[in-house]
Amino acid sequence: MSKLTIDDLRRILVDCAGEDEAAELGADALDTEFDDLGYDSLALMETAARIHQELGVLIPDEQVAELRTPRQVLDLVNGAAVETA
């Protein structure tokens, strides 16, 4: 399983939520809350489903609701990737 990068996360968010929202997602936005970046809960649920498809990391719905920033997603997914490797 490969590591999820900010570029991977941006690509997945673009696919799930559209280009407009993802334009602001860069390394400087890692600690910016998804609400402030314009992402809603549906986009995050779709993102979690795509991460499961592509990387095999399952993020339960309850946990998706607790994810507030891109860094939290990266840390969660990459931590799970290390545990299963």
TrEMBL record:
SMART domains: PKS_PP. GO terms for molecular function: phosphopantetheine binding. Signal peptide: none annotated. Keywords: Phosphopantetheine, Phosphoprotein. SUPFAM superfamilies: ACP-like. Residues 3-81 form the Carrier domain. InterPro entries: ACP-like_sf, PKS_PP-bd, PP-bd_ACP, Ppantetheine_attach_site. This is Acyl carrier protein. It comes from Saccharopolyspora hirsuta.
